[in-house]
Design a protein that fits this description.
CATH architecture: 3-Layer(aba) Sandwich
Radius of gyration: 16 Å
Number of domains: 1
Largest sheet: 4 strands, mixed
Low-confidence stretches: none
Shape: globular
Distance between the termini: 13 Å
Structural class: alpha+beta
CATH class: Alpha Beta
Strand content: 5-15%
Mean pLDDT: 97
Number of helices: 9
Length: 200
């Protein structure tokens, strides 16, 4: 019987990008059903006491960069740009596209889109706030980008994004990536091992 993981994440999170390969391998190995649930960084930080990277104390900024350097080297992510041209950027429409593609109902295409958007930011120097970029990224994973982006602009998907974010906050999510298995939350790309242990 398939088990379900709610994958809450920012589409501009370097740590979510770092986790893609390992999480996808785990999901495939365990036959997981994964709900791809992008959430709004500003709302999450604002309601849970978080601070965007640029507003953190310089000591925290330095440690963040050191961790990104260490982990990207350890994971062999040679294509990762730790200071991408388009970070931070507005992920709103991109997130609504993931949800419109079936992110909350575990559609595989939504997962491919989510991964491709993270890759666009952290490895391809693309701006996922740009509509032409969004169409091209969606096309690259087998979706009709022009149709999907128009669908995603509907108020229904804006509301879905807001509600998904609030549900995440109410569940206890305060950062990205966060994986929910039952009542347990696993925060961070470096907690995938613990998620795997919990899956047994």
């Amino acid at each position: 019987m398939s088990r379900t993981v709610n994958y809450y994440h920012f589409l501009i999170s370097p740590f979510s990008y770092m986790a893609i390969n390992r999480f996808n391998a785990l999901a495939a190995d365990k036959g997981l059903t994964v709900n791809y649930l992008p959430v709004a960084p500003a709302q999450v930080f604002g309601e849970t006491g978080g601070v965007p990277p640029a507003k953190r104390h310089i000591s925290r900024q330095r440690m963040r960069m050191a961790e990104l350097t260490r982990w990207s080297e350890y994971l062999g992510l040679t294509d990762m740009n730790l200071t991408p041209a388009h970070f931070p950027t507005d992920q709103t429409l991109a997130a609504q596209m993931v949800l419109a593609a079936g992110g909350a109902s575990a559609e595989a295409a939504a997962g491919r889109l989510s991964d491709a958007l993270l890759t666009a930011v952290w490895a391809q120097e693309k701006d996922i706030a740009n509509e032409d970029t969004l169409v091209a990224v969606a096309d690259s994973v087998g979706l009709s980008g022009s149709e999907l982006i128009e669908t995603a602009k509907d108020a229904k998907w804006a509301e879905a994004y807001t509600n998904t974010t609030q549900t995440a906050i109410d569940t206890g999510v305060f950062g990205s990536p966060t994986y929910q298995l039952g009542d347990e939350l696993f925060w961070g790309q470096d907690r995938i091992d613990f998620l795997e242990r919990a899956l047994g």
